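Predict structure. Chain length: 62.
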Amino acid sequence: MEKIKDFLKGVYEELSKVTWLNRQDVIKSTIAVTVVVILVSIYISLVDFGLSKIIGSLIGGR
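Prediction complete.
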């Protein structure tokens, strides 16, 4: 039980050293990540669609 108390005390001490982002930075980062995820998903979808059409035509699919 003493190990758990020591661990939680250490966690609390480390979290008190963390510098947290302010609200505006969190919002900007969230928007940036969302935009990048959307762009990458569109790119992957287009590549998948193109490759499936190419493979389909090579093997005689519909």
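Summary: The chain has a mean pLDDT of 94.
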